Structure prediction request, 676 residues.
Amino acid sequence: MKILLDAMGGDKAPDANIKGAVKAINQVEAEVILIGKEEIIRGKIKEFFGKEMEEISPRLKIKNATETIEMEEQPTVAIKHKKDSSMVVGFKMLKEGEGDVFISAGNSGALLAGATLLVGRIKGIDRPALAGILPAYKSQLLLIDSGSNTNCKPINLLQFAQMSTIYLKNTYGIEKPAIGLLNIGTEETKGNELVRESYKLLKEKSEELGINFIGNVEGRDAFSGKIDAIVTDGFTGNVFLKTTEGLGKFVKRTLTESLTKNIISKICALPSLPAINRLKKAMDYKSYGGALFLGVKKPVVKAHGSSDEILFEFTIKQAEKFVQNRAVEKMIEEFEKK
Amino acid sequence: MKILLDAMGGDKAPDANIKGAVKAINQVEAEVILIGKEEIIRGKIKEFFGKEMEEISPRLKIKNATETIEMEEQPTVAIKHKKDSSMVVGFKMLKEGEGDVFISAGNSGALLAGATLLVGRIKGIDRPALAGILPAYKSQLLLIDSGSNTNCKPINLLQFAQMSTIYLKNTYGIEKPAIGLLNIGTEETKGNELVRESYKLLKEKSEELGINFIGNVEGRDAFSGKIDAIVTDGFTGNVFLKTTEGLGKFVKRTLTESLTKNIISKICALPSLPAINRLKKAMDYKSYGGALFLGVKKPVVKAHGSSDEILFEFTIKQAEKFVQNRAVEKMIEEFEKK
Prediction:
């Protein structure tokens, strides 16, 4: 297996990308190919680890790409014109079978555009979407679309529900994943036009498409562990995702400070630290790392824009599993059956 | 001062409403008037407390109203036809000066329609909106619209920003409240059409209107304590609100269980319980209680639909402060100046 990593994408690139790849290499079986400016990458490896890349692992490689797509660039324009950017080179390698999965923490819009234009959509899916995995009570929650399609139609949300079902069945072994529609109330009449129309469509089509649609779900019930996936448009989904991240940060900070306010509370907190640290880790929504870009013909993983080396390490390991589960192949099979 | 409480609205009505009012009466200076079916209310008081209402406090009163607006009723129709419902009676009393603030945990749509139709909007405000107060790092966060207007235009969001500014200045004494626009990125070009257009309008008008507009804000930064208010449409705002509630529940549950897993972890957790309980309380987003309905001519408070007696008690106390701060009068003055 070959994992392609955009070495130039993300707020902390290329340092965090390179360090994360080096940390991950001994924990995965795959080759990890760093895509970006070869000279810079080689120099950084030498600077950080005091040796040549080849000395670290024979499975750590570089593919030279001389350009970088910046965060503020117009996505489609960037993908079309920067032919030698780390992102475009990565997608081309993925398409041509020179890699099995592509990871990037770069410009999200460009990643979406590139995946669709260069790798291609699965037949039957109009809009691929980002699926994020969040922690929930004794389980996890798939959130789709977690930020790729700002404007959606009901048919898109229906397809998100289909994709979630197939993904969760094949990857997590959940026989009938419970799929909810994110809304501001549980009644059919609640919400904006998109949600009301999507509700109707989901209700009408779910039996035929094998979706276990459980109706409208409010954010307050989202983490109960009873819901396997939540479908929504990319604007609302991204607000949802980032709100959990913000609240998670607030919890971590408040917890840490109230337990270390003074020497007495520090000592008192010692015995319960393992439990508290588990919670703090669960609250670190960033550590849920990569969102999967479902609906394209090959595995594409969007790493968090502000990924640090630990997160890159985590995302690389996650990407290996994504390929091992053959989630994308199974999605193609299921959609082609229809 | 007279606090009007809809005794029949909410999932746990009338029991929780009545118990909450009795608990609150000795903590407020105001009269509390329970609006609903007199016979039922009297019977319940006798049942719960073993005495007549008059024996509890001379400031606890009843206003008979024979009808109730149910959760699933069509808001405008209900307000127009159920003239003797607890909600309509409450609004009429508020309008006619027989009360200073009206609290209801009933049908939100009906509350919105009733406030607008029966009490009336402040001149210069097109859409009144619910403003919720959430905890943030060493401070609080005002979220407007937290659920009343599912569809909004840029002008509505601009007015939400104006109302927040006036409210926070007068109630919290914040000289230049920092107002952010909820979005999925900080760049001007991010978001859906409503957000992009609202950004332009806010940027253009904020100086003239005395708004300290700090630009787009992502959910991940919302709780940092650096932002005083977040403006958004009622659909997105309600998703935001309920997501914090859901995640808060998850944190509380996980924290409790990991600290009480077995006898050893229970004992170990004892010294840090006060700190942990403070956090759990902060995570109980329900306890932030009533959302203020800003933009109508009199104080209206929307209590949480699933309010229990503790929450009613809290909301009654909060409503008293809302009146004492003269927030609504000050809003009328400021908007009339313009």
